[in-house]
Amino acid sequence: MAELKRSVEIQKSPRLQAALGEMAAAIGGEHMHASGAELERVAKATIPQSKRPAALVTPKDRAEVAQLVRIASHYGVPLWPVSQGRNWGYGSATACLDDAVVLHLGRLNQILEVNKELAYAVIEPGVTYRQLRQFLELHHPDLWCDCTDGPPDGSVIGNALDRGLGVTHYADHFGTLCGLEVVLPSGQLIRTGGGPPNSKTWHTHKWGVGPYIEGLFSQSNLGIVTRAGVWLMPKPEAFVSFTFDLVQRKDLAELVDRVRDLALQGVLQSACHIVNEVVALCVLTQYPGEMLERYSRLPNEVLADLCRRYGAAPWSLGGGIQGTKETVRHVKRKLRQALSPLGRLTFLDDRSAGAVSWLSQWSARSAIGRMVAAGVARLAGKSVQMLDSAPHVHSVLKGVPSDFFVRHAYFKANKPKPLVADPDRDDIGLVWFAPVAPMTGRHVEEVMGMCRPLFERYAFDFYAALLMQNARSMIVLMSIFFRKEDAEQVHRAQELYETLVRTTAAAGYQPYRTSVAGMEHVGTLSLEFNTFLRELKSTVDPGKILAPGKYGI
Ligand code: ADP
Predict the structure, then answer these.
(1) Could you give the 3-state DSSP secondary structure of residue 211?
(2) Is residue 173 part of a domain?
(3) Residue nearest to atom 10 of ligand 1 (CA)
(4) How far, in Å, from the CA of 443 to the mean position of ligand 1?
């Protein structure tokens, strides 16, 4: 009711009305939504508390983006740019303050160029992982792009600007952006890199000449990126994926140290993910229905039972190996040497992934197929569900986006996992919390040692995925899953989130990325740093119209 009232008040603000009127005239009334289903869609987010947008505008090109910025600036109306707004768990398309106009760049969805020789593409922000991959498969099958294990219809540029992490050796998404075109809060269009205007190396020489300013447009509110170069990888001669199941929980620190050493030596190059048993269960199954109403955290014996049934190890590692056939053989040998003493290592190539996929389909169709699949799974020391998931893991590790993994967000949903996930649409409660640690077993254990008891105290399942950001840093990605229909649980999830934010920061761990709920806090982590950013902001955007409050600026 309160939200409805505020929405009506927003409608009545003459300044906003005038701005929206001009925006509608500039881009066409059908692309400005001050109410209705389109606006409701971008107002929804999975996080415990999200802000209410004033309107949604969907320009078609950079000229319209610049026009909208000028209008917003004239009327002092805040804009919140998103590319696809599928930043699930971090706030989706919602702003960190109420009453912003969401500027959705989904219609700027051109793949402008693919340079085969130098392996890069120039794209607009509405281009999704699915679109880019399909385009490459069709027109440039010798080039691959990275993706995340998140939404296939997320934006390549949006994720990179928020410094998201992918799955291959091109996982550092911001690191693989090169050469940006940006609309500034004044409406002025600039190119990063320092020129000349016909610069031949705009998309190949990341640092340009003079100060490197691309970082100013990442996790920031100083401009709207309307096109970017993104580096692609040549399809490797050979590719093998691997999974590793740790036998003893106590060996996690040792596993982290061994993975780091392999990465520092250059043996491991992909962004390996080490996930705990709760993550595995989210992928393989759903909360037992009868538990949903009664528990927000699975009782230990139920968790143990589920792990037995689904063959979930305390921690599992997954990654890809790519290169020449000799490189792949060499890496496999090194991995066996380093990891086999701690658990079970399994490799999958395209042929075996295809066979497993065929077996899964057969088992879905016939009783004999099910028996054969059960036998194969037993032999491999896996559950049938794990066997079914193996081809999906193999494929995503090659950078092929998939709907399979995002469905894990429905772990606590009171409906079956849909074929195509949309946690915003389906009122799923989910918020990510992602501090980053130096990549030593000691540091990673320290972070988890302070967070796990908080999950216990606030009665939520401890979901943790350790993502190798590079050979020196590990993101400790935690998710709080809660039921939105239970107000007490929503409140508790919010409290847990805030406690995690404060506790880890006090111990010297910063987030690698934050949800809109944590942005205010990020701005308090370093006074001098934030003061400098505020000075920049007041010069570049004196009217504070672009994403005010983003990352504490
Ligand atoms: P995705 O759909 O890939 O998850 P989003 O569009 O939700 O990505 O964007 C992720 C974050 O990056 C958001 O905080 C958003 O404000 C910011 N962002 C996205 N696209 C742009 C852009 N073109 N220019 C500036 N900031 C952007």
Answers:
(1) coil
(2) yes
(3) 158
(4) 30
pLDDT, tens only, 286-311: 998 888 888 999 999 999 999 999 99
* CA 170 to ligand 1 center in whole angstroms: 19
Domain of 36 in residue numbering reads as 2-107
| Residues 218, 78 within the same domain | no
Residue 6's pLDDT band (cuts 50, 70, 90): very low
Distance 446 CA to ligand 1 centre (A): 31
Domain boundary (234, 250, 284) is at 234
CA 478 to chain centre: 12
- 219 in ligand 1 pocket by Cβ < 6 Å? no
Give per-residue pLDDT as tens, 19-69: 999 999 999 999 999 999 999 999 999 999 889 999 999 999 999 999 999
Which is the closest atom of ligand 1 to the Cα of 226? 23
pLDDT of 17 > 90? The answer is: yes
Q: Which atom of ligand 1 is found nearest the CA of 156?
A: 3
Query: Nearest to residue 393, comparing CAs of 469, 317, 337, 324?
Result: 317
Output the six-digit token pair for 155. 């934006």
- How far, in Å, from the CA of 339 to the mean position of ligand 1? 38
| One domain for residues 434 and 493 | yes
Split into its structural domains, the chain has a count of 4
The encoded tokens of residue 350 equal 């395209």
**CA–CA gap between residue 117 and residue 127 (Å, rounded):** 22
The pTM of the full predicted model, rounded to 2 decimals, is 0.95
Residues across the chain: 553
- Nearest-CA residue for atom 4 of ligand 1: 87
CA of 513 to the centre of ligand 1 (A): 12
The pLDDT, as a whole number, for residue 1 is 36
* Separation between Cα atoms, residue 466 and residue 449, nearest integer Å: 14
Domain contains 523 = no
CATH number of the CATH domain containing 32: 3.30.43.10
User: Is the Cβ atom of 130 under 6 angstroms away from ligand 1?
Assistant: no
For residue 488, pLDDT over 70 is answered with yes
Please name which of 515, 493, 500 lies closest in space to residue 45, comparing C-alpha atoms: 515
